[in-house]
Amino acid sequence: MNLTSYVQDRQLTVALTGEIDHHCAKEIMQTISEKIDLYMPLRCILDFQEVRFMDSSGIAVVLHTLRRMNTLQGKLLLQNIPAQPYKVLRAAGIEKITEIKEECTK
To answer: What is the mean pLDDT of each run of 10 residues along the chain (106 residues)?
Structure first.
């Protein structure tokens, strides 16, 4: 799992790639937290376009990021979610607690 990020106009975009599972989730959460602490964004976007596989650890990443953004009174947006991770997120009811911009069709 790798991630890249950029900030523009107090919006932090984090592009996730590869697989999100228990082997890398803690590191992802730590990295995202560090970026949120550094940039203090009003909005954080998690872009899942290049995520090939995700298990329940991906839900933990989303919830952790949502909690961090809530402490800043900011918003979390999920976007470009491929079918398999989308099923995992929908099964957990994530769309009830944060915005999902669009599902990726690939």
So the answer is: 92 97 96 97 97 96 98 97 95 94 63
